[in-house]
Design goal:
The chain is α/β, with parallel strands linked by helices and 392 residues long. It contains eleven helices and twelve strands. The strands form two sheets. Strands 2-1-3-4-5-11 form a six-stranded parallel beta sheet, with helices on both faces. α7 links the parallel β6 and β7. α8 crosses α9. The protein is globular and about 55 Å long.
Length: 392
């Protein structure tokens, strides 16, 4: 029976702009600060029938063409690419925009610039890019294509020297991964009660590190306050070094499970695919091997029975990537595109957390996690976004 965790509200654009979740990611963490723009003063139209300047600036949904350039992986990678594209598709269905995506031949700046140019040349002048690898490409594109709008997720434009520059036709969006990891850590500890846990990361970059640090803090919180006894050893916290090495992910997972680890939290893209594969195979053999998914709800990726009713995915640390892309499109249609700003989607706006449905979590776990989330929203529980006192 599917169980409900918490109704994740759509991260509305206006709510996102006004709540604390939109505070700038601290500069000391290597991310740019928010560039706040002054609100446009409202003026009455000279004549009742004449459209306001703001209304004239709003594009018609049927005329708006939204394109995406994928990062490493595919549009159905069950992770960052897919989450971004699902938000764009939802905007196409609900708002009536035109949609398209292009997959680069490689992962260099030149590859990304080529596809951004191809989208622009075919009229797709609202372009969404998922991941920090697009930072320098967007830096160049926002100046070259001044009449286009750009959304970059998990990154911000710079010239290669981390001197961030978010132009008025661009918005940079980050997520509070540490909060999502924390909630997943609490849920994991509550459900399993005792035993060893592991973490497999892709590249050692801030977004992946914050997942790791938040997860450790969530487990520690549950141990200290909720009667659990979970452990994480330093040898079971590993960064593989890429996001596309599936065999390496499976090998690392096998090593951890062989050492007695009960569950592995994997934030590693394609490396995570290998980790899930190992979990599936072990469960088919009747062995306990849990995986905590990342970015999107990966429950369906962990099915290991013929009827697709049993999954090795305990829960997932979710970033509402789909909401981010959808909300920016909606903002553009409303004439409220937050150009020049850097936003962070966090727990206060339901921008991060765990999935709405968690079939492998008990009602008791779900209830307790919901209470923890509310305390986070109320400011009673804070989660550090750095690794001080933690493993890596």
């Amino acid at each position: 029976m599917k169980k409900k965790f918490l109704a994740l509200l759509l991260c509305g654009v206006m709510a996102t702009f006004s709540l604390a979740g939109c505070s700038a990611t601290p500069a000391e963490n290597g991310n740019p600060t928010t560039e706040e723009s002054n609100p446009t003063e409202e003026k009455e139209a000279p004549e009742e029938k004449e459209a306001s300047t703001e209304e004239e600036a709003k594009p018609n949904a049927s005329d708006l063409k939204v394109g995406m350039v994928t990062d490493a992986g595919t549009i159905d990678d069950k992770s960052f690419n897919q989450g971004t594209w699902e938000g764009i598709l939802r905007a196409g269905e609900e708002l009536g925009i035109q949609t398209n995506y292009l997959k680069p031949a490689g992962q260099t700046e030149a590859d990304y610039l080529k596809e951004i140019g191809n989208l622009y040349d075919t009229g797709y002048k609202f372009i969404v890019t998922p991941g920090y690898k697009f930072e320098t490409a967007i830096y160049k594109s926002q100046t070259k294509y001044e009449d286009a709008k750009f959304v970059i997720l998990d990154g911000a434009p710079h010239s290669g020297d981390n001197a961030y520059d978010v132009k008025d036709n661009t918005v940079a969006i980050y997520f509070a991964e540490h909060q999502s990891g924390f909630v997943a850590g609490v849920a994991t500890a509550l459900e399993l009660k005792e035993g060893a846990l592991g973490f497999i990361g892709g590249m050692e970059i801030p977004a992946v590190q914050k997942f790791n640090w938040g997860f450790q803090q969530g487990v520690d919180y549950a141990n200290a306050n909720l009667g659990t006894n979970m452990t994480i050893e330093e040898s079971n916290v590993v960064y593989q070094g890429s996001f596309d090495n599936v065999p390496a992910g499976q090998q690392l997972a096998a090593q951890m499970f062989d050492k007695g680890v009960k569950a592995i939290f994997c934030a590693a893209g394609g490396v995570g695919v290998g980790t899930i594969k190992e979990g599936v195979e072990r469960n088919k053999q009747g062995k306990e091997a849990w995986i905590i998914g990342v970015d999107t709800d990966q429950h369906a990726e962990g099915f290991y029975d013929a009827d697709n009713t049993k999954s090795c995915i305990l829960t997932s640390a979710v970033k509402r990537i789909d909401n981010a892309s959808y909300d920016m499109i909606q903002a553009e249609l409303n004439g409220e595109f937050p150009g020049g700003q850097t936003l962070t989607f966090d727990i206060t706006t339901d921008g991060v957390g765990i999935p709405v449905e968690n079939p492998n979590l008990s009602d008791e776990t779900i209830k307790t996690v919901a209470d923890v989330v509310q305390q986070m929203k109320d400011g009673k529980i804070t989660v550090a976004d750095n690794g001080e006192g933690l493993i890596k």
